[in-house]
Amino acid sequence: MMSENHVFEKKSYRKAFGPTADLSDLAKTCVCLANARGGTLQIGIEDKQELPPPQQRIDPEAANLLVRSLGGRAINVGLADPLVITSANGGQYLQLWVHPSLNTIATTSDGRVYMRLGEECRPVVGDDLLRLAGEKSGFQWELHTPHSVPEAELNPAEIRFFVEKIRAAPTNKVSPFVKGKSTAEILTHYKLLREDGLATNLGILWLGTPYQRARLRYGLLVQYMVYDEQERRIRKETWMDFRFNPLQLLDEVLAQGVELHYYHEVPEGLYRRQVRRYPEAVLRELLANAFAHRLYTVATDVAIRVYPDRLEIESPGHLPLGVTPTTILHERVRRNQALMDTFQATGLMEGEGSGYDLIYEKLSRDAKPLPDIDDSYSNLRVTIFAKAPNPTAVALLDTLARFYDFRQKEIITLGIIAQHGSIGAPALTQALQLRQEERLRSWLGRLVEWEIVLARGVKKSTEYLVNPKAYAAANLDVKPSLKTMEPHRLRALIEEDLRAYPDSSLAQIHRRLEELPLLEVRREVYGMVAEGRITPSSGGTRNRRYSLP
């Protein structure tokens, strides 16, 4: 069953036809899709349903009239390929393709602007409207040809380099059909050349000579700065001579940035294991994102700042409209489409939508803190931290990964839980950037089923912790902790506490078990009262005291 997302929407038959039709709402949906990336609109299928009602029929004339009516209510929106489709159960529905509005802003006929953000259609107003207008012009930078450079004047070595990368790419990134094209056809396919043979800005960025790249109004420039404990700059490297194409530039930055290769030594039995402060895959993905998603209509360089305790990568331009620091793990919005296509084909970055998934996975595997993302109107700054990982968490994750084939979501979730020892459902939901706690189930995956993770409590008071047996199975000598104590042992501890300190209040019990959150202690005490294992001895609801029977 295909669920609704940022490029797919379903609407009820009643929304489009008959006395309850709401064409204004349909027009708003079309505007939302057009201002994002375009998409498919299916009319005649109810929410949470995969097929239309078996007896439902779509009148072709009514469908044509609907398309014409939507064209008058949705401005700068292109509707194409209206099809009346008969489903497997015999029911019919209408399918429309909404073109993305690349150069203009789509609006409703009354001048309102909407955009599809995740699964929601939201109005765009104020500063967001200015951002949307800026991005519409930004989409086209890569395809402009202001310098009229023909293919014959480009750097032959760079052309060979790019084409060889394309033909050597794995088939999941470049199809055999594209690999079989001629050199000129490959360059045209990736929009480095226009049909008339002139190089686009993107073509000059990849294939140009240093002089030609320098003539780009806003090229790809990088500054690398190192700071001491007092945040005084002690070293600076710059790449402003336009010698390198994007892939070569990224490799050169990683090679020359010696501070990026520092590591921690983590005990591992009789030996010590080296864990990099900043995993190489994370660095490559963050730099590739800075190159790919930056605004190429802003005269600001990509800046890399290395401090003793953190690394900051700052690129010009904010996050694409529709993505925020608290949704970056889940939202999928591209800014420079053609540029990203070349980055993925040449192996410079991962596939669409997998960048931050990969970053979260690699940091979680090494028990490292997740990135901090600061989005302003003019710049995007991503910070990752050099904090030494918890050796126990690293050893646990390594051992479990040898015996279990974890999915990406599971290893991210397990890494977060292992670092915290014990984490509540609201905090875990926030760390995973989920809107609803109910969605935790898909991220926990099989961790609870396999009893690697224990869940105690219900709903919002649920606490997740690594099963102490998992530490034992990994031969890890872990100091007992109240946070990781199993519920039956915790209840036995509360009984021992009340045996030594009868007639104690909940606050007094918690004070003696201060490692645990108050909610955890309260839940166990209330449960023990319900089971008759302890009794309330005096006081009202707020000042009640407890003793053993």
From TrEMBL:
InterPro entries: RecG_C_sf, Schlafen_AlbA_2_dom, Schlafen_AlbA_2_dom_sf. Residues 7-124 form the Schlafen AlbA-2 domain. This is Schlafen AlbA-2 domain-containing protein.
